[in-house]
Write a structure and sequence with these properties.
Blueprint lengths: L4 H7 L7 E2 L9 E13 L6 E16 L2 E15 L15 E5 L5 E4 L2 H15 L3 H12 L3 H7 L2 H7 L5 E2 L5 E7 L8 E13 L4 E10 L1 H17 L3 H11 L3 E13 L4 E15 L2 E13 L10
Antiparallel strand pairs: 1-7, 2-3, 2-13, 3-4, 4-5, 5-6, 8-9, 9-10, 10-11, 11-12, 12-13
Length: 307
Amino acid sequence: MRPAAAVLAAAIAAPAAAQDLPIVLPDRATWTMTVERTSERNRPNTAAQIARSVSTSDVDWTADGDGGVITLRVRSAQLDGTNAAAFDTNALLDQPVVLEVEPSLAPTKVRNWPQVRTLLEQTIDKAVAEPAAALTAKKIFSDLSPEQAAQVVSREWSLATLSQGTALKLGHPVDYEDALPNPLGGPPIKSVGTFELQAYDAAAGRAVIEWKQAFDPQSASASVGQALSAMMARLAPDKAKEVQAAFASMQINREDACRHEIDIPTGLALKVVCTSAMTTSAKGQTATNLDRWTITQTRPQPSAKIN
């Protein structure tokens, strides 16, 4: 979700009169993060699937090297909507996620990934009745390294920290290029993104940063074409022609956006509103995935724990 550190550093190399927004936290700071999420899946000739969730997590931060360690402990979680009853959200309360983070608090690694992965696999076994489907779902996690897992299992945390630790000039958008995975299995797709500092009020202690990112159309088309070619190479000739006819005109598009309200004294994004829209179309039919998040965080406080 977050652009590679080198890409971002080059993109926002502090211009003249840039406003620095560093993370400044009290020793062993603690706070809470609440995430409200709505996911909508629309498929041709199928009723829309909508799921809503609300979770509140306790956050603990500890300085460590150049960055630090964030521990997320889910305090409460609720899920409703299509197939919501199949998931045991209480399992989320049993295992904290320990993240190694950059100075901006962006996640780089899940330190306790074996334990978190085991919990996720157990949750899948309870939620998915078909063994083959459960095995496929679990393989997604089994193939992830601790570094890759940081971008998958802590997506909300990645969204919340996306604009933290930046140095931007007010009203001057900064563009960058990155690469995102192709959900159809093709090569990574080039993406074009923008950070813009839209407001900076030192007296109120508040800044607003807008972030946008989208697939590059030409790169998306090329990646889909390569995915289709690889698929056809694995099929019998008669089946390959059928697949080519069905998917030759396939297009894929993704657009992401977030608005971060930054608390200037701490550098923390206290309110974040994000959307992510993915659209695939073929043979005149369109499928869409739309996710919305509202993330709120309390102002960090020094830890009251005594060793």
